[in-house]
Design a protein that fits this description.
The protein has 2 domains: about 100 residues; about 80 residues, no CATH class. About 70% of the residues lie in helices and about 0% in strands. Keywords: Membrane, Transmembrane, Transmembrane helix.
Length: about 180
C-alpha cells in the first residue's frame, strides 16, 4: 500500500497533487491570451528554478532522493516542481496557439476530447509494437502512437462524437447518480 501511495513510478500522492492543480487551473479563463502567457511565464520560472535547485550538492542520500532528485518519476519535490512547470509551459503554448491555428489543431482537439479512449490503445500498442525482449525504441512508440491516435480520434470525433470509453464512463456515472438513497 505504501508503494502505491508514496513510491514507484506513479505514486498517487504526487500525481494527485498535479491533478488537483490542473483542475484548479481549468477553472480560469482559458480563452484569454493573458492566461496563456501567465502559464508560459509561471511554467518557465518553475522549470528553470527546479533545474537550478537540482544542481545544489547534497551529501545526504535520503535528502537527495526525497527533495533534490530531478530524474523522471523520482517523485522528489524538485522533480514535481519541474513537472508542474513543464506542464504549465506546454499548456500555455498550446492555449496560445489554439486560436490562430484552430483548424489545423482539430485532430489534436479530438484526441484531447477522449483521453480514456486514446490512452487505452496507447498502452496496448506498446505491447503490440514491442520486440520479443519487451523493448521498443521510444521514438517508434511516440511516432506510431501519435499518428494513429490523431487520425483515429479525429475520424471518430467527426463521425460519431464522444469517445466510446468516455460514453461508457458518462453512462456509469449517470447510473450511479440514480442509485442514491
Amino acid at each position: 500500500m505504501w508503494e502505491f501511495l508514496l513510491r514507484g513510478s506513479y505514486p498517487i500522492t504526487v500525481w494527485l497533487f498535479l491533478a488537483l492543480i490542473g483542475m484548479a487551473l481549468g477553472r480560469l479563463s482559458l480563452h484569454r491570451s493573458a492566461t496563456a502567457w501567465g502559464f508560459v511565464l509561471a511554467g518557465s520560472v518553475l522549470l528553470v528554478a527546479a533545474h537550478l535547485v537540482a544542481l545544489v550538492p547534497v551529501s545526504d542520500r535520503l535528502l537527495q532522493a526525497a527533495v533534490f532528485d530531478i530524474s523522471p518519476h523520482s517523485g522528489a519535490m524538485v522533480e514535481l516542481v519541474a513537472a508542474l512547470g513543464l506542464g504549465l509551459l506546454v499548456v500555455g503554448v498550446c492555449l496560445g496557439a489554439s486560436h490562430p491555428l484552430r483548424w489545423q489543431l482539430l485532430p489534436v482537439a479530438a484526441l484531447g476530447s477522449m483521453p480514456l479512449t486514446a490512452y487505452t490503445p496507447h498502452v496496448v500498442s506498446y505491447f503490440v509494437m514491442a520486440r520479443p525482449d519487451g523493448r521498443l525504441a521510444e521514438s517508434q512508440i511516440l511516432l506510431w502512437s501519435t499518428a494513429i491516435l490523431l487520425v483515429a480520434c479525429a475520424l471518430w470525433s467527426a463521425l460519431i462524437g464522444r469517445g466510446p470509453l468516455e460514453t461508457l464512463a458518462a453512462r456509469a456515472g449517470d447510473a450511479a447518480a440514480m442509485l442514491r438513497p
